[in-house]
Structure formats: C-alpha cells, structure tokens
Amino acid sequence: MAPPSDLPTAPPIPDDEMARFRKRPKPDRTAPDASERNVVTVRYKRRLLWWVVAIAWPLTPVTFVLGIYLMVSFELDSSVPTFLLNFPPLYAAAFGTYLLTRKDLLTYDVRHGWIGGVAGRSALNRWRDGDRIEYSVPLGRLELIRANGRRRVLFRSGYLVDRASWTAFVDVFLAHQNTRAEDHRDTGAEPRHPSAPQPGLGPAVRVGVRWRFFGAVLLAGLALVAFNVAIWADAERSGADYDFFGLLTVMAGGYVLFGVLPIVCNPVLAYESGSDRVSVKTRGLPARGFPRPGFERLEHSVYDGVLYEVRADGKRRRVARGWARDQAAWKTFVDRFMRDQAAAESRSTGGEDR
User: Fold this and answer.
1) pLDDT tens digit string along 121-165?
2) DSSP letters of 204-232?
3) Which pTM value belongs to this model?
4) What are phi and psi of 193, to 5 degrees?
5) Could you tell me if 250 and 256 are in contact, meaning their C-beta atoms sit under 8 angstroms apart?
6) Predicted local distance difference test score (pLDDT) of residue 95
7) Which of 238, 309, 233 is nearest to 276 (CA)?
8) Greatest CA span in the chain, whole angstroms?
9) In Å, what is the CA distance from 14 to each residue of 22, 37, 244?
10) Distance (Å, rounded) from C-alpha 271 to C-alpha 333?
C-alpha cells in the first residue's frame, strides 16, 4: 500500500454539482405557516376592483372633456349636468384605487381573539375599560360595545367584500362568541349591562322604520335647502350671479328624498309567532304577504342582516333590511323568527327519524 503522500489528487467537483450544496433550500410555500393557519382574513373582491379601476380611470378624462364640450356647445350655466357626468367615474376610480391599496378588510387572530383592520382602526385605537366586541346576528355586522351600552359599527359585509371569506370569519367568530356566552352562564355571573325589555312581547311582532335616523337625514336636507335659499337671497340683494339649482340643491334633494320616503311610506313588517310568513304593509297600499308565489320559504341571513324569500333553486330576493328597521323591534323579530325556524326544523327531523 502506497503511503498517503503518494496517492493521486482527487478530481475537482463540477460547479453544477457544488451548486446544490451552496444554495440554501427554499421553504415550501404550499404548506401554510402556523401564524397563517390561526388568522382568518376577510378580503375585498380584488378582481372586481381591478376591473372598476381599469375602466373608470380612462373614462374620467373622457367624461371631463365631454362635459366641457356640452357646456360650450349648449351654453349651460348650471354645473349639475357636468357634475353628474364627471363625478361617477372619478369617484369609482379613486375609491377603487383606495381599496386596492388596502390589503384586507379585517384579520382575526383565532388564538388570541385579536381583530385588526383599517376600517375599524379609529374605534379600536380608542379602546376603553369595559369595552367589548360582539357580532350582531340581527344586523349582520361586527360592533364595538361601550361600557354604557352604546354600539359602534366596526365592520360589515358589502358588495365589494369577498363573500366566502366573510362567511368563514362570521362562522368562526360566532362559534367563539357562543362559547364565551356559555362559559359566562356556567359561572353564574350576571351581565353588567342587561338588555332592556324588548317591545312587542305579544304573539305578533310589528317592525317599523328607524324614525329617528331618517328624521335626522330629513332635517339635514332641509337645513341644506334653507342654507341654499339664504345664499340665493343674499346674491339677489347684492346683484351677484348665483346658480340656485346647483350642486347644493342636488345634495339637499338627495338628503330630503332619502329621509322622507321611508317616513311617508312607512312599510311595517308584521310577524305572527309560529308562522312561516310575514306581511309588509305600506301606507296607503294593501299588505303584501311573503314568501310570494314561486318562493318556498323565508330565510334570515346572519351574514348581512337581511330577510330573504328563497326559491327552490336557491335564488333569493330581499324582503327587509335590518339596518333600516327599528333596531329593538327588529332584534325581537329575528330572535323569534330564528327560534321558530329552529323548532320547525327539529320537529321535521324528529318526524323523519320516526
């Protein structure tokens, strides 16, 4: 055996083989991180927002030039037509871009119960002792409840919110909320702020509109009308040129119509306990019963706080919105309606088992 010094030198290792050892192995991106598995994220409909932005931004200068052309050609003194022509695409483009810059609507840490999001950051930053966060099943929204019982909306679903991620969040959050409520009952502790007695404790529940809310909107519109009249009168006295039917009139008219229509029409929803139907009576019109022919049943959505009538193929049509109804009476109605539906389902299930 030759001495070690006489052994031939080993050939060099090719560079392509050494590259495998020099490169650090990349983590597997297909497997979610532990932190990602414990966080529920509610997203926006980003594909829809990209389409809105891609259409609205090029359309904005076109409508602007068209508005100037119409003003010059037809000698329009009022700015309302050009405003109605230019504002929608500009607003859609700016609002869509703003939502695209926001990563998500909200995030929910399952382990710690933390909620984050840009929409409710201002309220969450002013957290006080005794505050709590609850999901309102009748109204379909996440609320911040102060120690004195006042409620503030943090997050709600909408047309631009991804439905699947919002549904997943509500399911998880409601499961945790119900668990906390059961633990609270097991300890025998009384709530610090018991709810007020609910109206309509008889067999029938009647739900009207939010008189205070729509009344306040109507008063705001009338205040704008008075302000516009005052400016016009002052311009008439001084001989200045003022367009009375301008943007201020459009804003005032929108406020007045939004506030006065529900008050004048006053659609009252009526429900008999144990029934599977509701009726809506509008002032001056006969009552309409729901579900109508062609629909199978009524369904209250805990995800958006709306009462629907449902067809056999699953298509739904809105009957009443929770946010526009008297809040206390709507909560009473939803509690009874869901309780009656749960009892009817249990009876049908028991009959099938027998």
Assistant:
1) 666 777 788 888 999 999 999 999 988 888 888 899 989 999 999
2) EEEE-B-HHHHHHHHHHHHHHHHHHHHHH
3) 0.78
4) -130, 80
5) no
6) 94
7) 309
8) 122
9) 13, 42, 85
10) 7
Note the residue count of the chain: 354
H-helix or E-strand spanning residue 166: helix 163-186
**DSSP character for 80?**
H
| DSSP tag of 9 | P
Q: Is the pLDDT of residue 305 over 60?
A: yes
CA angle 14/15/18 to nearest 5° reads: 95
| Helix/strand number for the chain, H first, E second | 9, 13
Measured CA distances, 53 to 91, 100, 180 (Å): 10, 9, 42
Report the C-alpha gap between 62 and 69 in whole angstroms.
Answer: 11
Give alpha helix (H) positions in 75-115.
80-101
Kind and range of the H or E run holding 301: strand 297-301
Evaluate the CA torsion angle 235, 222, 151, 163 in order and state its sign: negative
- Here the tokens at position 305 are 């706080």
Tokens matching residue 87: 């504002």
Spell out the residues 6+ positions from residue 106 whose beta carbon is closer than 8 angstroms to its own.
41, 42, 115, 116, 117, 119, 120, 142, 154, 155, 169
Mean pLDDT of the chain: 83
Bond prior to 8 in cis (omega within 30° of 0): no
**Residue 157 contacts residue 302 (beta carbons within 8 Å):** no
Burial of 327 (0-12, 13-18, 19+ CB in 10 A): middle
Lowest mean pLDDT of 28-37, 42-51, 222-231, 254-263, name the range: 28-37
Q: Name the β-bridge partners of 309.
A: 298, 317
The predicted-structure confidence for 18-64, as pLDDT tens digits, reads as follows 454 454 444 444 444 545 568 899 999 999 999 999 999 999 999 98
